[in-house]
Amino acid sequence: MKVQLLDESTINQIAAGEVIERPASVVKELVENSLDAGASQVTVEVIEGGKSLIRIADNGEGMSPEDARLALQRHATSKLRSASDLFSIKTMGFRGEALPSIASISRLTLDTRTAASDKGLRLSLEGGKELKEESLGSAVGTIISVSDLFYNVPARKKFLKADSTELSQIIAVLEKMILANPKVRFKLTSTGRIILQSTGNEQLLEAVVSIYGKDIASKLLPLVLDTGPRLKIHGLVSLPTYLKNDRKGQVFFVNNRPVNDGILIKALREGFRNTIPTNQHPYAFIFIDIDPSQVDVNVHPAKLEVRFANSQDIFSAVRSAVNNALLGSVTKASDELPEPVRSETSDSTIPRSKIQNPKLSAPSWTPAMLPKWEELISTSGSKTPDTSTRVPITTGSTHTAPAFQVNDSYIAAIMDGELALIDQHAAQERLLFDIFSERLARQETASQQLLVPIVLELSARESVLLNDQLDNLHAMGFELSASGANSFLIRSVPVEIAQRDPNEVLKEVLTELLEDGTGKVDRDALLKMMACKAAIKAGQRLNSSEIAALIDDLQKHPSARTCPHGRPTVIKLSAKELARMFKRT
Predict the structure, then answer these.
(1) In terms of Cα–Cα distance, which of 345, 294, 375 is closest to 189?
(2) Cβ–Cβ under 8 Å, residues 428 and 500
């Protein structure tokens, strides 16, 4: 086989493949460039999840015509002068490195102007090849438009996910940008609709509000540790009483760069040692400022991982900072965040005068203060479902056979003259799935209206997914209406989950959708998730009436012998099998 040099276009496409995996990769690279250019405002516009268009506009310093042309050539950068600079990187991205790679796999237009120039410059490229150069009037800064991403690399384009999934990934990138740069005003729009927006008023807590909402922000504690010029730590962590089932609410930054590092995750956990359950996780937004020579950010191609020169010192410092924040909360007075005021994008923005110096601490809260959702239920006007398919979660039953609950997860009972061992979660999950499926097939709804609508506050990513599933949720019995950029009003719920907190059920479903990441959430998949999240949990104590009701419904539905995921719901042992087990053959 003959050895030959690759052409420039192929080299650029290979380089692009190393860092440009999807539209979110383009957004990350270009927004980092905007930040390095000193921008205080960055607007991101996308269409079809970034597949058709990604436009990044900033008010940074812009580029001269000479720099703009150089920036579109490989190995050209304004950030490095020698190899030694790689070991003390202080900037986010290399404008001259990302642009040629992105240009090689798209149709790209670059508009830029510096304050020293009367006119701006526009460069148009297709597949990395320059098509046109022209001067134009424009504001100081840079606008880069990327159209038809991967149009000339079909093998890579076919692996892109659904528009909502790609948009969700873009949101995830910008959320970290907003947290790391609270003094920058960000805005994200999708097909003209504002999805995400920050105030840029330098307050980390308000940046958290713009992403996660005021409820989470009100449960955060300030975290600070200053050991001198070589190491500083600051951020926010949640109260030990406010936890998640996953680590999605934990973000770490090293020199303002988001990283995923096992040492930092472990240090956070150790800081909460003996205060939270092992399967629960706090929210955490932790920033580590360290001498650049003491950390290597080039371990990962996308700089998602780092290597510390002295990892044990970092571990100890983060653990101490978290522990000190928790100890400090004990002596602080509770001060809830005020009611929100209306803003351009949402009804949930905290007044700036109240957020400058927040006094956040452990609220005087007890489980007894949880709302009793059944008190919010109004039976008037509700559609009564077919009683032959309804799961009476808390109603009485005519079942009189003896049953008792084992480990608050399993039920031992007599069914059809046999000993039955029932997985309470799997069993009700199956029953709910069948009910939802049958109802949708008949195009019927069975919902109960709430006396008082419940506000559902979501992150931008959750909001995008919920909007994508509104029709399916409505068909299942939910009545939801938008009340802000990322908040909704729940007016009615399916009768089967009337005893549950609908906020909790919907957020659990959305969390699973985000973790799935396939972009192929059809109605059947949504039904499975909803049935799973709405069903009785393993470890949940049931009263005798609830146990009897579940057994009766299983007897009415003999086909419900596996959950929607294929696990058994009931295991039966006949008298002969019991005799054999006890050696009575």
Answers:
(1) 345
(2) no
Query: Which tokens is 125 given?
Result: 């490229």
Element counts in the chain: helices (H) and strands (E): 18, 25
Please give the radius of gyration of the chain, using alpha carbons only, rounded to the nearest integer. 28
In the predicted structure, residue 345 carries a pLDDT above the cut 50: no
Q: What are the residues whose beta carbons fall under 8 Å from the beta carbon of 467, sequence distance 6 or more?
A: none
Tokens of 96: 């001259």
Taking the C-alpha atoms of residue 459 and residue 108, their distance in angstroms, rounded to an integer, is: 31
pTM summary value: 0.72
pLDDT at 96: 47
- Tell me the pLDDT tens digit for each residue of 376-424: 333 333 333 333 333 444 333 444 456 788 888 999 998 888 899 999 9
Q: Is the dihedral of CA 144, 149, 153, 157 positive or negative?
A: positive
Strands 250-254 and 284-290: parallel
Residue 519 CA to residue 49 CA, distance in Å, equals 11
Q: How many whole angstroms separate alpha carbon 567 and alpha carbon 247?
A: 27
Q: Which amino acid is at 177?
A: M
Beta pairing partners, 286 = 235, 252
DSSP-assigned beta bridge partners for residue 145: 55, 109
pLDDT band at 307 (very low <50, low <70, confident <90, very high): confident
Confidence of residue 305 (pLDDT cuts 50, 70, 90): confident
Tens of pLDDT, residue by residue over 412-456, are 998 888 899 999 999 999 999 998 888 888 887 788 899 999 999
C-alpha 97/C-alpha 358 separation (Å) is 41
CA angle, residues 197, 199, 202, in degrees to nearest 5: 130
For residue 97, name the pLDDT band (cuts at 50, 70, 90). low
Q: How far apart are CA 373 and CA 393, in angstroms?
A: 14
Strands 570-573, 220-226: pairing is unpaired
Beta bridge partners of 220: 238
Calculate the CA dihedral of residues 382, 388, 392, 395 and round it to 10 degrees: 90
Strand (E) or helix (H) holding 323: helix 311-329
Q: Which of 466, 479, 472, 503 is nearest to 382 (CA)?
A: 479
Q: CB-side exposure of 422: number of CA atoms within 13 Å?
A: 31
Give the DSSP letter of residue 299.
Answer: S
Of the candidates 340, 211, 337, the residue with the CA atom closest to the CA atom of residue 285: 211
pLDDT digit string, tens, across residues 67-88? 999 999 865 554 544 445 555 5
Phi, psi of 493, rounded to the nearest 5 degrees: -135, 160
Contact 237, 322 (CB under 8 A): yes
Count other C-beta atoms under 10 Å from residue 122's C-beta: 17
Q: Which of 456, 575, 398, 485 is nearest to 189 (CA)?
A: 485
Q: Phi and psi at residue 581, in whole multiples of 5°?
A: -65, -30
CB atoms inside a 10 Å sphere around CB 330: 8
Run of H or E including 120: strand 120-126
Confidence band of 4 (pLDDT split at 50, 70, 90): low
